[in-house]
Amino acid sequence: MSKIMSPVDAIAELFTSEGAADYLGEPVTVAEHLLQAGALAQAAAAALLHDVGHLRGADAQADAIVLSGRELMSGTDNNHGDRGAVWLAQWFPVSVSEPVRLHVSAKRYLCATEPSYFGQLSEASVYTLSVQGGPMTDAEAREFEREPHAADAIAVRRWDDLAKDPSADVPAFDHYRPLLGSLLIAG
After folding, report:
1. Is the separation of the CB atoms in 61 and 90 below 8 Å?
2. What confidence tens digit (pLDDT) does each residue in 91-108 have?
3. How many Å apart are CA 169 and CA 137, to the nearest integer?
4. What are 22's strand-pairing partners?
5. Contact 48, 39 (CB under 8 A)
6. pTM across the whole model
7. Measuring CA to CA, which residue among 43, 15, 11, 46 is closest to residue 28?
8. Are the beta carbons of 28 and 15 closer than 8 angstroms?
9. What angle do CA 110, 54, 136 make, to 5 degrees?
């Protein structure tokens, strides 16, 4: 990312470049998925950005963190929630970055604590769940519940699950620029 480019412009560029690619076995692109999640959540920037860890290549500003979803679909957990959160934390408060970091844990938590949740997952989400550690143990679930942003991560996860409709009509990325700009932390 250029030092001149604003974080919001960098994210917009990701949506139009790497985000135009297929979304790891889902019937939408990554950008379509993120825009749907953002539209469902309206004001929740974390929903809009929750899978940015699948989009971002090496970034000199983030200690050469490589973000890609291809490893996940080939059977290796790419820790995209953690990686995306680290990248976003450069510019956004923990109210944005922490739900991003925890959204995979939220899927694992919901599978462990809500008997019907697993049956609502897409085929691709069922597969990635197996790569990401499967449903949480009771001890892991109790630990997750103590996370300050667990409830927000669960909300992001639920929006994530709903944001896979190839015919959804949602606002374009530019609709979210004012929201993202208002959340930027002073650097």
Report:
1. yes
2. 999 999 999 999 999 999
3. 38
4. 29
5. no
6. 0.78
7. 15
8. no
9. 20
